[in-house]
Write a structure and sequence with these properties.
This protein is mainly α and 156 residues long. The chain contains four helices and no strands. It has a domain of 85 residues: Helix Hairpins (Orthogonal Bundle).
């Protein structure tokens, strides 16, 4: 099976634009990025699904083709459309609620998250200070007291 180069370039462009929009802090752009990535994945499933052919119903033919179309790709795309619609409605509800609370659509830094990360950094620094520092002047190649097995005199 050979695939045309044009749909693959289109898929790459849609995915790249979707990722770019998802990385923005504006909820509407995030939603558009999610929709672009979803459409790119749907097109990818359609391209990978194989060539078109007869309907997958026994006794039905379409034109002069002898190949039966794979219904799995179509079912997966329909399922993906429904899931994307649900996620998009959830993001729209979040955007509406955020706009009603803050009258702006930008997603800002969460002050509680900043406090948690500051506390974690402070705790990590405290643990680093309490950790004993290695003695660099000591010869680590020579056997220590802890290297010897108790009760073993060695080969004398």
């Amino acid at each position: 099976m050979t695939t045309s180069f044009v749909p693959l370039v289109l898929l790459g462009g849609l995915t790249a634009a979707g990722v770019y929009l998802l990385l923005e802090r504006n909820l509407t752009r995030m939603l558009l990025g999610l929709l672009l990535i979803s459409n790119a994945i749907n097109l990818l499933i359609l391209v990978v699904g194989g060539p078109s052919g007869n309907p997958p119903i026994r006794g039905r033919t379409s034109g002069d083709t002898s190949i039966t179309a794979d219904p799995l790709a179509q079912a997966m795309i329909l399922t993906s459309i429904v899931i994307t619609m649900g996620v998009a409605s959830f993001i729209l509800a979040m955007a509406y609620r955020s706009y009603r609370l803050t009258t702006e659509e930008e997603v800002g830094d969460d002050p509680e998250d900043a406090k948690v990360s500051e506390l974690a950094a402070r705790d990590t620094a405290a643990v680093e200070e309490e950790r004993p520092k290695p003695d660099l002047g000591r010869d680590t190649d020579a056997p220590d007291e802890l290297d010897a097995v108790p009760g073993f005199e060695g080969s004398q």
